Amino acid sequence: MSEHAPSSATPSGTPAKPRLSLYQRVTKSAPLLVTVIVHVVLFLVAGAWVVQEQIIGKKTKFEAPPPSDATPMKQVEHRLQVARKGGSSGGSSSPISANRIYSTAEGALQLPEMPDLPSMGAGGFGGFGGMGAGLGLGSGTSMNTSLGGGGLGGRGFMSLTFLGMTSQNVNKVVFVIEAGAYTMDVRKGGFEAFNIMREEIMKLVGALPPNAQFNVVLFDASKTDGGAYNLFSRTLTPAVVSSKDEFFAWMQPINLDYQRIGVFSAAKATPWVEKKLSEQEVDPRLVVPIWTRALQAALEMQPDTVYVITATVGEVRKRRSEQEIAKDHESVRRKREELAKKGVDIKAIEAAKRSAYAKARRELDAINKKQLAKGKPPFVVPNESRIFQADFQEALRKAGYSITLDRTGWTNDEGKELDRGGSVRTLDPAEFKEVYTHISRLQKALLPQSAKVNLFYFSGPDQDGKKIEEVLSPVARRNGGRFEFVTTKRLQEIKAQAEAQAK
After folding, report:
1. Which helix (H) or strand (E) holds 335?
2. SS3 call for 245
3. Integer Cα distance of 95 and 132 in angstroms
4. CA 245, CA 94: separation in Å to the nearest integer?
């Protein structure tokens, strides 16, 4: 059986017509070809119209509304502080000047003003010359001062530099400053050094962004607790223009006038009202140095960063029990009775001693009047006994003065004090490590998250810093901060660098 190809015939026997493609049918029929061409042209025209009118033609228009006769156009003033070229000479000129940018738009954004810092030379004694400006606005978000600065980082936190010490992630900062007689002592540097510290703090606060918060706690280690503290505010203050202006007015007069030295030489008094803590939170018998108490005042505000400047280390003591104090009272009473039987007039001895130191104070006041008349800084002492320490006596001698302690009536021929039967001791010495535990307890009791504590010790040129660093440095380390010494010489170097940068 042979193999056949498939048949192309229809069942009726007639050959089938070949099937035409769409292209062949269109091109074979003229009317159909014309119809297709017309439809294609119309489609292209319609597409072009849609693109032109609906996409290209519909441009967003921003039109300012015509000014209304009833509402005149307002001129909104924007002010931006810029640094003045050249440092300030003397204290008479303001360290920062202002340039102004004006906008006439009705809804223009008004930028916050940078505050004008007050001049430090006006007023009483202490005008040793201005610090120079040096407020710089970096690109974008950084802000720096000539003496210290901060760069604003993510989430509103800053990198803040104070006296050469930089802390990261700062948003709530408190400065704790010893502003009493120990800081003003000739051993430390007196008025000139404090002037520099004051202006450093003011410029740094002036550069804080509005979202930051700040406060200042002043303390005086030469006073008892009742008069040892003065706060700018009882709570943290937003770093807005109005708060800064108020702060500058508060800070400016501190220790400018020899007749008014100490924490309450500020423009207003806001004493510290201590938050009472339970015996489980802190040891009620422990008596810590004044600067530690001032640190507690700062921690009660719940900051994230604290800078402490102290001119004193202080002593750590513990209160004696009532039984021990009563026993001392009885012992002193018996000794004084025995002295009285021997003809010793204890009250006269005590009066003679008080009179001798009062006389020394009057002589020092007379010397200070002469110093001021010469345009020189006065001598400041926390107490009269400081006058007769060797380094203070040497400072008096170099200035051409001398003060001799009158020992009549209260010392023997060898210069030793006459026996008055002793005194009642209410406190016992304690180890300094008690301070470390105390601060840790404060952090736990007062803050949800511990604050970084940076500590400066304001040192004199002849002081032995080794022992001071041994006891104070662990305070900073244990609280996430740093410890450094600061001297008058170092402050002068900072001031010189600031003035050089301002030129």
Report:
1. helix 322-341
2. helix
3. 5
4. 14
Alpha-carbon distance 240 to 89, whole Å?
28
Q: Give the pLDDT score at 503.
A: 76
The span from the CA of 98 to the CA of 80, in Å, is: 6
| Per-residue pLDDT tens digits for 101-120 | 333 333 333 434 444 554 44
Of the candidates 462, 463, 466, 457, the residue with the CA atom closest to the CA atom of residue 486 = 457
Could you say which DSSP state residue 412 is in?
-
Q: What pLDDT score does 26 carry? A: 52
How far apart CA 120 and CA 130 sit, in angstroms, is 6
Closest CA to 297 of 349, 234, 358: 234
Q: Which amino acid is at 271?
A: P
Cα 152 from Cα 140, distance rounded (Å): 9
Joined tokens for residue 182: 């120990």
Q: Is 313 exposed, middle or buried (0-12, 13-18, 19+ CB in 10 A)?
A: middle
Listed in order, strand segments (DSSP E) in 139-187 are 142-144, 149-152, 158-162, 165-170, 172-178
User: Which tens digits make up the pLDDT trace of 484-496?
Assistant: 999 888 888 888 8
Beta carbons of 57 and 51 less than 8 angstroms apart: no
CA 425 to each of CA 31, 326, 334, 422, 460: distance values in angstroms, whole numbers, following the listed order: 127, 10, 15, 9, 31
Residue among 309, 289, 275, 313 at smallest CA distance from 438 = 289
**Residue located via tokens 């003033």:** 77
> In this structure, what is the dihedral angle of CA atoms 459, 117, 80, 168, given to the nearest 10 degrees?
20
Task: Report the distance separating Cα 172 and Cα 238, nearest Å.
Answer: 9
d(CA 227, CA 387): 23
Residue-wise over 92-129: b if at least 16 C-beta within 10 A, else e? ebbbbeeeeeeeeeeeeeeeebbbbbbbbbeeebbbbb
Q: How far apart are CA 176 and CA 481, in angstroms?
A: 14
Which of 36-40, 60-64, 371-375, 452-456 is the least confident region?
60-64
Closest Cα to residue 466, out of 483, 478, 454?
483
3-25 per-position pLDDT tens digit: 444 444 444 444 444 555 555 55
Q: Partners of 453 in the beta sheet?
A: 306
Question: Would you say 473 and 318 are in contact if contact means Cβ atoms under 8 Å apart?
Answer: no
The two tokens of residue 35 are 């119809």
Q: Which residues contact 500 (CB under 8 A, 6 or more apart)?
A: 87
